[in-house]
Structure prediction request, 838 residues.
Amino acid sequence: MSGGHVRRPVITGVGVTAPGGVGVKEFWKLLTDGRTATRRISFFDPSPFRSQVAAEADLDAELSGLTPQETRRMDRAAQFAVVTAREAVADSGLDFAGLPPHRTGVTVGSAVGATMGLDQEYRTVSDGGRLELVDHTYAVPHLYNYMVPSSFATEVAWAVGAEGPATVVSTGCTSGLDAIGYAADLIREGSADVVVAGATDAPISPITLACFDAIKATTPRNDDPEHASRPFDATRNGFVLGEGAAMFVLEDLDGARARGATIYAEVAGFATRSNAFHMTGLRPDGREMAEAIRVALDAARLAPEDIDYINAHGSGTKQNDRHETAAFKRSLGEHAYRTPVSSIKSMIGHSLGAIGSIEVAASILAMTHDVVPPTANLHHPDPECDLDYVPLTAREQRVDAVLSVGSGFGGFQSAIVLADPERSGA
Amino acid sequence: MTTATWVTGLAVAAPTGLTVEEYWAATLAGRSAIGPVTRFDASSYPARLAGEITGFAAEEHLPSRLLPQTDRMTQLALAGSDWAFANAGVDPAQLPEFDIGVITASHSGGFEFGQNELRALWSKGGRYVSAYQSFAWFYAVNSGQISIRHGLRGPSSVVVSDQAGGLDAVAQARRQIRKGTPMVISGAVDASLCPWGWVAQLTSGRLSTRDDPGRAYLPFDDDAAGHVPGEGGALLVLESAEHARTRGAGRVYGEIAGYAATTDPRRGSGREPTLRNAIEGALADAGVEPADIGAVFADAAAVPELDRVEAEAIAKVFGPSAVPVTAPKTMTGRLYSGAAPLDLAAAFLALRDGVIPPTINIRPSRRYDLDLVTGAPRAAPLRCVLVVARGHGGLNSAMVVRAVDRPAPPNR
Prediction:
C-alpha cells in the first residue's frame, strides 16, 4: 500500500420519502412506533388483480417544492428522487453553491424506472391496447425520459447543481444498495468529492401488479392490508409493493470533519455477488449473499462480532426469508444468533430498487438514535427462521455498526456495512 | 500501482456484422446497414429508417425454453457473451466461481417485450401478462441472464446513462478489476425497434425524418438533421493484466487506460457544457497528453447544436483539426447503450491494424475545426484512441484506450 491519503466515504445528509410520511422525521417515527403503512391500493381500482395491497407514499408535489414544470416533466419516481435529494442536501448543511460543480456527482438507483409513466402513456398511445402501431401524435414530449431512467440522475444533478459523473444503477431490488456502493467508490477513487446518492422507485401501477401476480410474488392478503407484510412469520405469503426514495450526501471523512459536519456513518464496506442460478429463484443455502457479506466486512475491516444490527432484506416471500437467514448464519457464524435482525418492509412494503437506500436510511438512523426498528406483524415465527428478528417493538441498544443486505431478480446479492467512524474503531 | 485492465476478448452484434471480423471489414469498406425499417410498418411515422441486424436467428444460439423469456436485445447479448468468451479463449467454468463479473449498460431494458405485455394488459387484462414480464423487460436483465448462462458469480452491475452508459459500464468493470476481481464481461447490447420504442424515441426530437439512407444521418455536416436508430452493440472481456499474463491470453486488444464522466448543467442555466472536462479528465486518468491521442471516435449526434458542442470541445482539447476524428456509427445508426461499446471494439481494432475507419456520407461542415476521416479509412500508427459518448440530459463520458506491448505468448 502507498502511504497516500485514504479517502473514506461518509454520509452527512439524509432525505427520505416513504409510505406513511414524507421526510426523515415522520419516517423514523413510523418505524420506531412499529406502525404499518400498507393499505388497499388507492391509485386505481385494484380489484382485477390477485394482490390489491401496497404501501403508498403521500407525496404532494407542490408542497414538496416542485415547480409546475418539474411536476409535468417528471415521472413520480423522478419526483421522489428530486424532493428527497433536496432534503438530503439541506440536511447536510453543505453549501452546494460553493462547491466546484464538476467535483459533485449523482448516483441514483432504480429497478423499474418510470414504470408508472410508461404504463399510462402506453395506454394512451395504444388507445387502451387497441392499436398495435401505437400513435405517436398522442405521446407526451417527455416520453423519452420515461423510457430511459438516466433522466432521474440528470434531474437530481440539475436540482443540486452537480456537473460531475451522474448515472442510474439498475440492478433490480439491490439497486438501492448498489447505488450507494457505486457512489462510495467515486469518493474513494477521487472521481468526485461529494456525491448525492440514493434510490427511487414508484412501481405501483397495473403492469407491475400484473407481472408480480403472474409469479405469485406479492401477497394475496387483501382482507387485512395493514398486516399483509409479514417477513419471517410462518404465515408470510409474499411481499407488499411499496414506493418512495432515500437520498444521501456522501463526502470524504476528512472534508466532513473539517467543516464540522454531522457524520451519520461511514460506508465502510460494500460488495455484490450473483447467484448465477435463476432470474427470480434463490437457492436456500445463501452462499452468494454470504460471500458478499464476508467481502463487505473485510473491506470494512470489521469482524462479525462488530455488527450490532442487521437490516434484513426481509421481503416476506417464503424463499427470501429462509435464504437470507441461511446467509447470515453462513457468514457470521454464531454471532448471527446474537445480533438483532429486522425488516422494515413489514411496515413500508417493498419499493423494489428504492428500498435498499431506504433501509440504509433506517440503518444510519438506528446508529444515530441507538434504537433498532422492529419487524412488524411477526407473531408466529417460522421454525426455519430462527434468529432474533426484533418482533413488533423497537429496541433501545447501542448501534455502532450495521449490516444491510439486499437480494434481487437477476440473482444480485448485495451487502453494505455502515459504521460510525468515531465509535466503532473502523 | 493499480493493475492495468486489458481487453482480451471482443464480440460484436452490429447491423453490419455479427462477427468481429465481418463488422470490421464492413466498417473499413464503408458499408452501411441503414435502410427502411422492416421489423414493423413504420410508414405512418415521421422517421422510417433504421440500422437493423439481419441474419440473427436466436433459436440457433439459445435453448428453446429461453426464447419466450427474453427480449431480442437479451438474445443478442446472450449470444454475444458466448462469442466474447470464445474470442478471449476463456471457459468461464474453469475459473473460480466468484472470479468473473458481468457489468452491462442498458438504455430501455427489454422494451419490445414490455410493449407486448403492456398490450396484453390493456387489451385483454392483467391475467394475460407473461410470467416472464417481471424480469424480461427490466434494465438488469442482460447482466442477470449472462451471469446465469455462464455461471458468473463475481461482482455484477447495470448502469443506465442513456447513450453514454456503455462507457460507464466498462469503467465500472475496470473498478471491479482494480479491486481484485480478475475478469469482467462488460459492454451493452440494445434493441428497441418496435412501435412503442419508436414512438418513445421520436419524442427525443433527435430522429432523422429523411428517407434516403445516404442522407439521413450526417454528423458534423451542414445538412445534419438528427440520427438513425439502430440495434446491437458489443461485449468486451476485461481482465487484469496479471491474470491475462498468467493464463497466457492469446489476444490482448489493448488497455482501458483512462475514463471520466461529467453532466451538463440544465439548458438555459447560462453555464457552459462540460464535455471538454470529461475528455480532459479521461486523458489525465490515462496519464497521456492530447498529442498522444491518435484518433477520436466521436459521439456524432448529428443534431447541429450537439455537433457544435462536441466539435468545440475536441478542438479546444486537441487544437483545431489537430487529431483525426471519425464516426463509424454513420454505418450502423446509433445503437443507444450499445453504441459506445461498439466504438470501443472499433477503437481496439483500429489500434491493432493501424487504421482509422471512415465516417460515411458526410461532407464536413466548415463551421467545425475538425479533421474528419471521410470516404476511405486512413492509415495511422496508433497508440491511444479516445472514445466519446453522450446521453440525453447532458451526460458525457470519455474513455482512452491504449495499445499494449507484450512479448509473444509462449508456445504451447
Remarks:
- The domain at 5-247 of chain B is CATH 3.40.47.10 (Peroxisomal Thiolase; Chain A, domain 1).
- The mean pLDDT of chain B is 97.
- Chain B has two domains: 5-247, 258-402.
